[in-house]
Give the backbone structure.
Amino acid sequence: MRSLEWDDSRRASFVPYEMELENPYVTLDGERLLMLSGYSYLGLNGDHRVIDAARTALEHYGTGNHGVRALAGTIPLHEELEEEIAAFVSRDAALVFSSGYAVNTGVIGSLVTPDDTLLVDKYVHASLIDGAKLSGATVSRFRHNDPEHLERRLKEASPHGMRLVVVDSVYSMDGDIAPLPAIREVCDRHGALIMADEAHSLGVIGKTGRGIEEHFGRYDLVDLKVGTLSKAIPSMGGWAAGSERLMRFLKFRARPFLFSAALGPAQAAAALEALRILDLEPGRVTHIQRESARLRSVLGEAGLNTGFSETAMIPIICGSDAAAYDYAAACRKAGVIGLPVLSPAVPNNLARLRIVVTARHTSADIDIAANALRVAAFQTRLIAA
Ligand SMILES: Cc1ncc(COP(=O)(O)O)c(C=O)c1O
């Protein structure tokens, strides 16, 4: 019988993972600490316009949707949200699910069959891997962000069936960006399609936060975009966007869409309002991009290893799991919270703190963060004094 015990002793003594969040400061044991690992990239969680929209929907529609979208669960807000997402990411149509996880398992699980081949970047999110397992397709992993290795894998792959290449637009553990123009070229040579997960990309990269295609200034890079409504967009739910035909297919085939309750009214309204704010206030995106570049450069100059990060997600690579715990504990003493990510979520000896710059962090907050992260690094000998 499998043991269900979980050894929590070490982590509990150092870093609390589940704390009350008052972005960007948290109160812990009576102490006010700067939170550096939250996902509200755009700083819209708690925005009064988003809260008002959610409250109005709650009062109008109630707290639930009476089941699945295909039966009595669809409300006009779902369709408005889908239109807004499709327009925002430059696609003909979109479909909203109850979570990003449901999108990734549902889309891959329905679209891809055992006759097909999935070519998956080694570092994609777990939900995409779970979708791949559900599909029954042959799965071939290629080296992270390595189009040449992808090409080798495509040459080895069966010529029969669909070949779908799956990437994250921005990688959640590293903050680096998929080299999509090069991946597109390889895929075009081999007749493969591309699915990109924009979970850490929407609201974060591209001049106005429209994600990876805006970042590269090309709108022909992705065949199927997916994302979540729980990070830059401060709600819950997930979305897929592509052609009308594809969305129609998913509507009738994706099992988490067909057999799981629809996104709640307040969540749909919050997401819709946040997306509209993002459209109206691109300065939030500029702020994240400017401040994260500044933080990365200060940390780099101090000798910290921020890997290949190019975005608001900045890893500080510590090495062993113990080194990451110690660094997190020292950061907490220095007044900031950075949450450690350990193996197996990242490769062995590449444990790290994941620092996320949001639009709620002022330039003064980033100065405080830079200082605390440096001081803690000296104290734990991550960098030499
Ligand atoms: C890249 C990526 N895709 C998908 C998801 C799942 O999204 P959700 O939390 O909406 O289920 C996450 C969440 O952490 C993610 O980081």
Notes: The chain has 15 helices and 13 strands.
